[in-house]
Design goal:
two-stranded antiparallel ribbon, Carbamate kinase, alpha/beta, 8 helices, globular, 41% helix
């Protein structure tokens, strides 16, 4: 069975750089989980994290200081994609021995998957790496995308802006898409990319949003046990 993890860049490489202690533990826990059943496979789709936002913000600041027009969404997305690719190469190296194939940069192109772990990055402008996770789920017949980030659950609204926002255990695709809208903005801080959400709904996929650093919870999700998170779909 194949599981797809959309691994938020913010938990792999926050602003201060790659989180090595977390990645050591992630490798250890996932390696043990994979060893328990040889048929298990994981696809890790890695986001841009700190490097993405640092460079995107720098380009915006450059334009401001030059009194020129704001950077195009395509320019900002290309920077984000480059950040996902360096993060993905790093994660592939972290999983050396389990990840035997090149990092996937285009989920629609030829893909070799000979190990137990496959790592993918962002693809092209217009959406985030969440979209690539959905595309790879369809391609490898995975019914669920595990969206791991720095939030434990989806809320009824942004809790930073709405103090009485409520965490959700489950939400339908129409309800979720009404919350996040239908337009992708580079660097947007959303539980799941709106463009990816439309694709996931059309494909009949489920997405589970959960805290990426809670590895006990991650293993519980993978094993079908009770977990903390939000089921979309």
């Amino acid at each position: 069975m194949t599981y797809v993890l959309s691994l938020g860049g913010s938990i792999v490489a926050p602003a201060e750089g790659p989180d090595v202690p977390f990645l050591v533990e992630l490798r250890s826990r996932l390696e043990s989980w994979l060893a328990a059943e040889p048929s298990r496979r994981l696809i890790l789709v890695v986001g841009g994290g700190g490097p993405c936002r640092i460079y995107q913000n720098a380009l915006k600041e450059f334009a401001k200081r030059r009194n020129s027009s704001a950077p195009s969404d395509a320019s900002l997305d290309l920077i984000g994609i480059a950040a996902t690719r360096i993060n993905a190469q790093f994660v592939a190296a972290v999983f050396a021995g389990l990840c035997a194939d090149p990092v996937v940069e285009d989920p629609t192109g030829p893909i070799a998957f000979t190990g137990q772990v496959l790592v993918a990055s962002g693809w092209k402008p217009g959406f985030s790496s969440d979209y690539d996770a959905v595309a790879l789920s369809e391609r490898f017949n995975a019914s669920t995308v595990l969206n791991l980030s720095n939030i434990a659950k989806v809320y009824t609204a942004d809790p930073k802006l709405v103090p009485d926002a409520k965490p959700l255990d489950a939400i339908t695709w129409p309800e979720f898409r009404a919350m996040v809208g239908s337009v992708w903005t580079p660097g947007a801080n959303l539980p799941f990319d709106p463009i990816a959400s439309a694709k996931a709904q059309a494909a009949g996929l489920k997405v589970v949003c959960a805290a990426g650093r809670d590895l006990d919870n991650l293993i519980a999700i993978l094993e079908g046990r009770t977990y903390v998170g939000t089921r979309i779909g």
